[in-house]
Amino acid sequence: MAIEDVSKPTYKDKDILVAVKAASLNPIDYKLVQGKLKDMVPLNLPVTIGYDVSGVVVEKGAGVSDFEIGDEVYARVPQEQMGSVAEFVTVQSDLVAKKPENISFEQASGLPLTGLTAIQALEKVEIRENDRILIHAGSGGVGSFAIQYAKEKGAIVYTTTSTKNVDWVKALGADRVIDYTNEDYKEVANNLDIVFDTLGGDYTFDAFEIIKDGGRITTIVGPPDGETAKQMGMTDYKMPEKLSELIKEKSAIYKLTWMQPNAKQLNEIKTMVEDGAIKPIVDLIYPFEDGIDAYEYLATGKAKGKVIISLADLF
Ligand SMILES: NC(=O)c1ccc[n+]([C@@H]2O[C@H](COP(=O)([O-])OP(=O)(O)OC[C@H]3O[C@@H](n4cnc5c(N)ncnc54)[C@H](OP(=O)(O)O)[C@@H]3O)[C@@H](O)[C@H]2O)c1
């Protein structure tokens, strides 16, 4: 990774050009840098990274009527426009929403990718009132949003984290915070309606042990289910045999979510934030010139909520 001068991005008829005030980091960014997603997200290097942005509209295409110059906005930019860790980024205007008015640019930039992921993953398994759900990694970017969203939906929330995070994760509204360093989550949380798997590996398979018969598992890191694989264009995909067997044994619903940008849901997040139902959780804010350090910190897997790069004082 390096900080470089690049040309200002061009924009099309339906795009807006955003002067970036803040960009938040997500594990997908460093996974791309580490080459771990080569097959799923092919890139022509060098590229500018970053999907999450909040900033101000400074130019717009002739076909844009929903936004004016000067509007404060936030978005998860689509793959083709990736590059929010920069002075300017272009975004397809139908994927953008006005930023929540009661929070800073830094806080707002932390919401799109994690918020959309949590909403889409929980909607996929139709979360409803009184569902008993385990959300893994409640102190992560996705988990800290998902806890608040699940509580808003009336669910009973169990979550896992380590000792140092227990108190603040409980304050997000979780009913039972399980400290994975000294408790076995499978003993505390079982016979569940839903497991939200944000960890993958054995956690995906072990989720079947703790759901009730007919329970639901929603993953953002596990192997795709057949239907999602098809939607993702994986025509030759065959689900791992072990997974198919577990689904059958438990009559379970198992779904992978691969988050999609969505302005309607960003507007819902705006409303929930302005109503106080969702609080943005920011761990550290790095100035732009220390952006590479920010990625190294996120890649430790120990962030407490979101890691943000601020450009507010720069441009
Ligand atoms: N499919 C999609 O569309 C999609 C979208 C977003 C994210 N993701 C993926 O979902 C994963 C989570 O994303 P994120 O943004 O939430 O990551 P993150 O913010 O980097 O998660 C960090 C948190 O994970 C916790 N953690 C680590 N190991 C744990 C364990 N064994 N048990 C419980 N908590 C643990 C850490 O808490 P402690 O320090 O207390 O351990 C830390 O607070 C990433 O792999 C990401 O790539 C997928």
Summarize the structure.
With 315 residues, the protein is an alpha/beta fold.
Q: If you had to describe this structure to a student in words, what would you say it looks like?
A:
The strands form two sheets. Strands 1, 2, 3, 4, 5, 12 and 13 form a seven-stranded mixed beta sheet that branches. The radius of gyration is 19 Å and the shape is globular. Helices cover 29% and strands 24% of the residues. The protein has two domains: 128 residues, Quinone Oxidoreductase, Chain A, domain 1, CATH 3.90.180.10; 143 residues, 3-Layer(aba) Sandwich (Rossmann fold), CATH 3.40.50.720. Strand 9, helix 7 and strand 10 form a beta-alpha-beta unit. It is of the alpha/beta class and 315 residues long. The two termini are 21 Å apart. The site of NADP nicotinamide-adenine-dinucleotide phosphate has 30 residues, from helix 1, helix 3, helix 4 and strand 7.
